[in-house]
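Lab notebook, bench 4. We co-purified these components, and the gel suggests they stay together. Before we commit to crystallization screens, I want a quick structural picture of the whole thing.
Request: model the full complex, all chains together.
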Amino acid sequence: MSEHQANKHDNRAAYQQDTVMDHEFDGIQEFDNRLPNWWLWLMYGSIVFALFYWIVFHTLELRKLPREQFEEVMAEAQEIQLAKMMEAGVDNDFFVAMADTPDKVAEGREIFVKHCVACHLDQGQGLVGPNLTDGNWIHGCEPMDLFKTVSDGVAAKGMPAWQNQLGPTRVMSVVSYVMTIKNTNVSGKAPEGEPCQF
Amino acid sequence: MEATNTQMKTVVYDDSIVRAFSIITVVWGIVAFLVGVIVAAQLSFWQANLGLEWTSFGRLRQLHTNAAIFAFVGNGMFAGIYYSTQRLLKTRMANDMLSWANFWGWQLVIVGAAITYPLGLTQSKEYAELIWPLDILVVVVWVIFAVNFFWTLAKRNEKNLYVAIWFYISTIVTIAVLYIVNNLQIPTSLTHSYPIFGGVQDALVQWWYGHNAVAFFLTTPPLGLMYYFMIKAANRPVYSYRLSVVHFWSLIFLYIWAGPHHLLYTSLPDWAQTLGMIFSVMLWAPSWGGMLNGLLTLRGAWDKLRTDPVIKFFVVAVTFYGMSTFEGPLLSIKSVSALGHYTDWIIGHVHGGALGWNGFMTFGILYWMWPRLYGTKLYSNKLAETHFWIATIGILMYVVSMWVSGVSQGLFWRALDAEGFLKYPDFIEGLTNSLAMYHTRLFGGVLFLGSAFLLPYNMIMTARQGAPATVSVQVPARKPAGDQESAWALLTSAPMLFIVGILALAIWFGASGTMLSPIILALLIVVSVGAIISYGLHQKRWGHWYGLIERHALVFTVLALVAILIGGAVEIIPTVIQSNRVPRVITDEMIADDPALAETAKWMQQPYSPLELAGRDVYVSEGCYVCHSQQIRPFRHEVLRYGDYSRMEESLLDHPFQWGSKRTGLDLARVGGKYDNLWHYLHLMDPRSTSPASNMPTYPHFKRKTVDAAVTRHRMEVLRRLNVPYTDEEIASAEADFASQGQLIADDLAGKDVNIAPDSQMAAVIAYLQRLGRGPQPVSAVPVTAGK
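Here is the predicted assembly.
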């Protein structure tokens, strides 16, 4: 490179690698070497990329912006979920059967320990939330009512809606577990709501 | 100088100011690292919060960041600038009194920060948390520094300005602009204020500032210092002058646009987010230009790397700079930000920059400069080597552990199971998963802190073997001719017209619609090609033109100022205008006139009740935003975990905004109503009682301390001046509403066997948390009628 041959342009002919410029600052000298080509291409490339990105997303609007992409993702997921619920045929009997399945109950217990004990305590005897081990339920007597309570929550009483965070399968398991501790009568919070049988 | 017929005079440099700044740099550096180790320990072991309100993570974190940035790097920058500027301009600093006012004023700011942050006095804007009286002090000190610097520039005995000086100039003007705009605020008392911008505006202005504090406080000054100290230490000519020119101007012009990359996927308008991203990508090459000029200068001097600890510090510093400035653009790409934002990856990224680039740069400068200030050699190269190696290992442990922890958090939060629901619904699992990495980080931090003590020891011993040196230089008695060109001729020359034309067309292109844009794009390409041809044909003339600018300090400064104003103006002004057009109160008649307003009305935030506002002020003062965001991004996993994604209208009335930048805890944008008051009480008193693995500090003082209704009423009046639509009735009944809402919460808790005072901070914070993401809540037992 330093042996760069003279060509038609004077300024090019004048170029020599590692030529010290004619000024100095406190003993600091400077070369005036050419910019490395790969560096120049990096710079040009990123400018072209920036223009291209802007044109695709904002000028021509060929691709969807984040919020539009999100709506698509959610709509798809919703459809899949609905189809699965239909397939499973969730009703009261479904939960009674599930509460009889030790694996499902054990799964439910695990979820209960992670998410529910802060308010209902380890054995379900109640603290912030009601005692789950007496014979009373507050928001309806059927398993489907319990499923609804856990899924949608009871905002007024501080019960969170778990549907989104846990997803329906986990909510079903935890409902099946809670059904099994009903009437175990662990001493804790006094009974609230109505006595229930099913 | 060789000219025999020129009369010479002697200039004596003021190095006592450099010695003072050097010493204080080390002192504050160790404080900053120590507080860093403490806050790292708090994330590993919550007990390290000590159960005291003054030492909780939320309050100490800002002390750590401010000490590192402004006290350590800042004083190091002053030391280096005062040393190199005098030598590069061949003159003593213009006025010693100004230099010392700069020194003592800056230390006063830092002491002020160290006192106010633990007391909970903060604006909650990252790296701009100082309360307004201290903000004013910062501006005064900065103006003193600027006057001293530019006066020195005017007195210089050197015709041209060296590249280091260019970087100093851009630093001084840009920091002034950023700091003042981001701190525009209305005081409500001696220690409290509300920023004039709210919600999305405040977020954009803050990150325009925040990102460019990194650019113009942590990047341009060390780059300038690199061009002096590293080149001196290498004793080789700078690799390329033209690379300096190209990377300096592209760097300062592009940097200022990149702020919105901190706000990707938030409710900031999409066009501004995209600008933040694409300008960050374009910033990659200019950033690497600085690294290249540094590293390529060492060609032929690499043998020094083996023997000279100073070169070791510089080379690793520049390498970390290169790594951080690759990682930055990478993290700014939207899909990468989706994974990395809010996680520890960002913490790792900034520490690679702060410890590696800024820390090692500062250490290198001190090891090189200190012996020269005492006319001697460094006491021990061996100790400096030891410092280097231990600190390097410390940084690597820090950065790598945060990468691992950050990427796993990102993956963990977004993981969905086969059914499309959260695979890890429990947020705390992500934290537990990171604990081993937190311990590793802590250990790395301890290594960095421990090794830093070797520096003052070496400095003391060096000073003891020498004596304060007086350095002087012979300069011509008459000032060299500079600044003689007509400023107007420079500004209207062909190169300038090309540059202005290209920038104007590029901005016009961005703003134009589908119809017009092809024409403007064609024009843009024609003018750019024209510029390239013109440069090719008249390379000498372009070079000469730049040489003239380079010696015209005023023109140079004005051009630098214009270069950094463009990006901010293009992003901030339209966003402010656009969001100011959104009506704060939307009536049914307005919707009848303009049905599009119905959607806005659905999301439009309504003012906080007095007690909620008081609670919010406590939340701000505790620095809750340091670990809890209030901004849900439009991703399925976030919406499943936290609720619907955040809309711009929902936080427009928030002064300051609380979107946050990190999630050590959960997002709180829609926490209102999710739990009952008792849960919040138990959780604030002892977070472990409701989530056993939490590392959150305890807040028992919320129960003990009170909030003041009269103060809150005054603050509501101030907020009303900032366009928050409080009605006359609401302000008149502020004290009554304050008391009755507090009573409601106290009564509710009393029913659950917990007693708190209705005017306790506890009641206020619970009121605020219960309001988040929801409309107005009852403020008294008598239901309020809607109609705000």
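The two ends of chain B are 78 Å apart (CA to CA). Worth comparing against the SEC data before the next meeting. Residues 784-788 of chain B have pLDDT under 50 and may be disordered.
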